[in-house]
Amino acid sequence: MTTVGILGGGQLARMLALSGAPLGLRFLVMDTEPDACAGQFAPLLVGDYRDEAALAEFAGRIDVATFDFENVPAASAEWLAARVPVFPNPRALAIAQDRLAEKTLFRELGIPVPEFAALSTRAELDAALATVGAPAILKTRRLGYDGKGQFRLRSLADADAAWDALGAQADKVGLILEAFVPFDRELSVVAVRGRDGEFRAWPITENWHVDGVLSASLAPARVSDALADAAIAHARALAERTDYVGVFALELFCKDDRLLANEMAPRVHNSGHWTIEGAETSQFQNHLRAVLGLPLGATRMLGHACMLNWIGAMPDAGALLGEAGGHWHDYGKQPRAGRKVGHATLRADDAAELAAALTRVGATLAREAQVAPVVGRLTQP
Ligand code: ATP
Ligand code: MG
Ligand code: MG
Question: Taking the model in full, what pTM does it have?
Fold first, then answer.
């Protein structure tokens, strides 16, 4: 009996555990919160990721460790890796945790990125603005998620406001200024690399964010084969350079058919949730296969799929479940403003059918604004 340890007990751990059950796997989830939603399906060890005694107990009860939470302290990941196999490896995790290290690596690999400059003082912000230009986004280097720890500067006149918002964090997490990209669309590559180096990517996904939080994903993205090949080649280069094992996502901006990399996520990713019903093998299943050294499953998709995130509170499931290709995921979390509490996936054999289903669901749930950009993309000539 193999036990997979997961650091972090949110919905990603929950979906990993659900996906691993048919493989006969056992799980142990570690989280700082006693009500972590993965705990509804897997034994939960409540503890601080920095606490050696808690980590030792965790290590003693598992055969292999992986992550649901990308900000597990690098030192804790390394401590664990000295005792049990840990995938992805702590070095890859550390790079993905720091926007500066991540963007520097992208550049080294020839993956285009927006202009950027690291900074830690108010004077350095002025210097960074002089090189990066405006509009720009000031971000914390570490610990940001769902668009938190970011400030948008429309012009140089916003420098004071940006510093007021994030300057206090400069010492603790570092700051980075990035050029604002007036993108046409946002894309992601969700890919997996096995212990033996085998690499597979799912079809490219197009993503829509609202206030920095993912709102909807569509797969396959309507992009040329050349663009898809380039995006997947970037993801592959990244995985090979970091000796990555498991699933990860590479987030990309697309402007005039040019790709610019935004960030990588060293874990299964929200933009890959559609793979549960929309692909031959889901990202969760392939992540587990990768970390266990099992053969990877095919990543081809079945028709067209759209994932809608439910933020704050769950809508009524009825409209969605009434659709032939409708699939419901309630993470079992308490409602809270801005919190990801669930998602739905609609799948259809052709694009017109998917657009029609999305339109019906959007109208019934009063989510017209959420489905509109996806329907627009599906119905564009
Ligand atoms: P995630 O939840 O994806 O980890 P995050 O907090 O790490 O989010 P980013 O992915 O960097 O943050 O930014 C969130 C969103 O904000 C992006 O998906 C994009 O919509 C927008 N954004 C971020 N950086 C830029 C940029 N340089 N130019 C334009 N838009 C941007
Ligand atoms: Mg991020
Ligand atoms: Mg992101």
Answer: 0.97
Cα(324) to centroid of ligand 3, in Å? Answer: 31
Dist. CA 118 → ligand 1 center (Å): 17
Instruction: Give residues whose Cβ lies within 5 Å of ion ligand 2.
Output: 263
Segments forming the whole domain that contains residue 140 = 115-179
Confidence grade of residue 146 (pLDDT, cut at 50, 70, 90): confident
Ligand 1 lined by 338 (C-beta under 6 Å): no
How confident is the prediction for the chain on average, in pLDDT? 97
For residue 129, the domain's CATH number is 3.30.1490.20
Q: Is the CB of 137 under 6 A from ligand 1?
A: yes
Reported as a single tens digit per residue, the pLDDT across 309-338 is 999 999 999 999 999 999 999 999 999 999
Pairing, β 3-7 against β 64-67? parallel
Domain with residue 62: its CATH number is 3.40.50.20
Q: Is the CB of residue 326 less than 8 Å from the CB of residue 274?
A: no
Q: At what angle do helices 90-97 and 99-108 cross, to 10 degrees?
A: 110
- Whole-complex ipTM: 0.98
Q: Is the CB of 6 under 6 A from ligand 1?
A: no
| Separation between Cα atoms, residue 67 and residue 245, nearest integer Å | 12
Give the number of the atom of ligand 1 that is nearest the alpha carbon of residue 146. 2
**321 and 358 housed in the same domain:** yes
**Confidence bin at 48 (pLDDT 50/70/90):** very high
CA-nearest residue, atom 26 of ligand 1: 180
Mean pLDDT over 65-85 rounds to: 96
Cα–Cα nearest to 121, from 175, 158, 172: 175
Predicted local distance difference test score (pLDDT) of residue 147 = 87
Annotated binding site for ATP: 99, 139, 144-150, 178-181, 186, 209, 262-263
What is the rounded CA–CA span in Å between residue 261 and residue 282? Answer: 24
